[in-house]
Amino acid sequence: MAACENCGSVYAALEHSDGTIRPIGSRDGCTACGETAFTPLPDFEDDSKAAGAGDE
């Protein structure tokens, strides 16, 4: 997941080996404003998986 650096629209995205981030299905960048710079969103841990973490 990544957010457009201009308007904040969020997209499912891929990070390429050269470090660029592109939204999936939108080669021209953000469909809302046309920006081509994106910031990856932090990973959020799935609470249902974390609930049992460490339990034996």
Describe the protein's architecture and organization:
The protein is mainly β and 56 residues long. The protein is built from one helix and five strands. It has one helix spanning 47-50; strands at residues 2-4, 10-11, 13-15, 21-23, 38-40. The strands form two sheets. The chain has a three-stranded antiparallel sheet with strand order 2-1-5, with no helix packed on it. Strands 3-4 form a two-stranded antiparallel sheet. 12% of the residues are buried. The mean pLDDT is 83.
Characteristic key phrases:
1 helix; mainly beta; 56 residues; two-stranded antiparallel sheet; globular; single chain
Task: Provide the low-confidence segments as ranges.
Answer: none
Radius of gyration based on Cα positions: 15 Å
Tally of helical runs: 1
What would the principal axes of the Cα set say about the shape? globular
Largest sheet: 3 strands, antiparallel
Order of the strands making up the biggest sheet: 2-1-5
- Topology order in helix (H) and strand (E) letters: EEEEEH
Distance between the termini: 33 Å
Structural class: mainly beta
The total of beta strands comes to: 5
* Beta-strand percent range: 25-35%
